[in-house]
Specification:
four-stranded parallel sheet; DUF4435 domain-containing protein; 316 residues; alpha/beta; DUF4435; 2 domains; globular
Length: 316
């Protein structure tokens, strides 16, 4: 019987990880076998690549990049741990990208963590919205329609944040309780936030945000999770009133607000002083790719990509 070499053992280890539910292992192995000299970007899910790939290319230039869907934040950190522990991958050009979410910071220099809740928040800043107005609606800076839209976006976004502060606070508390239970090896029902459809909780119009929920509604819609201590929820709400909500609140809610507001602008043709035509068609599935070029590109991300590239140059 042929004895396993070190690389064979590593491959087998990765295969075992895959059996345990890890995402992306076999895809990575297949690509790494063929393209050892290219760059490997490990992200949480398919949507993340729509944001990161063009920005990595913007810093590195015309180079080959493989984006690996790692199956969540834990998947990204798992990839980083296994690859860094193995001499078989010591020359790999790897970058790791995760969302901050409601979690404590990772503080790992090898992993890039968004300076906000997630990449979606980078699409919903006032500066990003301004670029969308200019390029998709043909409204130039300095035009009255531009200022009217920017001001309305700011006002409505603030109303939106006031409308979802309870929802974000409740979710953050559920996340904190689950994380503490996991640290203590205790079982605790985990809230599946992907089940939360924002349209069930608020309506967005051109001049208002209508709230359709309260704490009792949340308990009824999600009976599988435990009640949150009143003092804990009040403390979280109090904390969230003092932060930059656009950065801290759940990104998928933020970008759904942006999408809804853009759809309202398209429908309300009488809102503009001049006739405006846009062919943009946004869905939950395509918004990250179609608006990626307008999203913010934080300095910390530029620094991370450049620093990793310098490290690769030294080690190669």
């Amino acid at each position: 019987m042929r004895r396993m070499g070190k690389m064979d053992e590593k491959v087998e280890k990765l295969r075992q990880q895959r059996k345990k539910g890890a995402v992306g292992w076999m895809e990575f192995l297949k690509l790494y076998t063929k393209y050892k000299q290219s760059y490997f970007c490990f992200v949480e899910g398919d949507d993340d690549g729509k944001y990161y790939e063009i920005r990595v290319c913007a810093i590195l230039g015309n180079t080959e990049i493989n984006v690996i869907n790692s199956g969540g934040k834990e998947g990204v950190t798992r990839f980083k741990r296994i690859l860094s522990e193995s001499s078989d991958f010591e020359l790999i050009k790897s970058m790791f990208f995760v969302d901050r979410d409601f979690d404590p910071p990772l503080n790992d220099p090898l992993i890039y963590e968004t300076p906000c809740y997630s990449i979606e928040n980078l699409y919903t800043t006032q500066s990003a919205f301004g670029r969308i107005l200019t390029n998709e609606f043909g409204i130039s800076r300095g035009e009255e329609d531009y200022e009217r839209c920017i001001n309305q976006f700011r006002v409505l976004q603030e109303s939106f944040h006031n409308a979802v502060i309870l929802l974000n606070s409740w979710m953050a508390c559920q996340r904190e309780i689950s994380a503490n239970a996991q640290l203590g090896n205790k079982k605790h029902p985990k809230l599946n936030i992907n089940k939360i459809n924002l349209r069930n909780f608020i309506d967005i119009n051109i001049d208002s945000v209508i709230v359709k929920y309260n704490l009792e509604t949340l308990l009824q819609k999600f009976p599988e999770v435990d009640n949150i201590p009143e003092s804990m929820l009040e403390s979280k709400i109090s904390m969230f009133t003092k932060v930059d909500k656009q950065r801290v609140f759940r990104g998928k809610f933020e970008i759904e607000f942006l999408r809804s507001f853009l759809e309202v602008l398209k429908r309300e043709k009488g809102y503009f002083l001049e006739e405006r035509n846009t062919k943009i068609v946004l869905t939950k599935e395509n918004i990250l790719s179609d608006l990626s070029q307008y999203a913010d590109f934080p300095d910390c991300l530029r620094t991370y990509i450049s620093a990793r590239n310098r490290e690769f140059a030294v080690s190669s």
